[in-house]
Specification:
98 residues; 4-stranded antiparallel β-sheet
Length: 98
C-alpha cells in the first residue's frame, strides 16, 4: 500500500527533483513542473508516453496542456499528499523529455 512520504524520506526523494525544476505547490503537499516542448505534437507525444507509464503504475497526474506547454501537478490523493509514486512518476516524466 502507498504511504505518504515521511520526513525522513522526503529529502532524498524530493531534493533531486527540485534540482531538476520541480517545486512544491503552495498550500498543498504536491509538486509541480512546467514542461515546454518545440510544438504541440511534441508536447502531446510526451503526454502519450507518460500516460502509458501512469496507467501501468495506476498513478495519474493532474496536467494541463496549451499548445507546446504542459503543466503537471503530482500528489497521491489516496494518502492526502506526496508519496514515493509521485517521485517515481516525476523522474519518469523528466526521463521521457529527451
Amino acid at each position: 500500500m502507498t504511504e505518504r512520504l515521511s520526513e525522513e524520506t522526503r529529502k532524498p526523494l524530493l531534493e533531486p527533483l527540485f534540482a531538476n525544476g520541480w517545486a512544491m505547490v503552495d498550500g498543498r503537499d504536491a509538486i509541480e513542473k512546467e514542461f515546454v516542448f518545440a510544438d504541440f505534437v511534441c508536447a502531446f507525444g510526451w503526454m502519450a508516453k507518460v500516460a502509458i507509464w501512469a496507467e501501468k503504475w495506476d498513478h495519474h497526474p493532474e496536467w494541463f496542456n496549451v499548445y507546446k506547454t504542459v503543466k503537471v501537478t503530482l500528489s497521491t490523493h489516496d494518502v492526502g499528499g506526496l508519496s514515493a509514486l509521485d517521485a517515481k512518476l516525476a523522474r519518469k516524466m523528466d526521463a521521457l523529455v529527451g
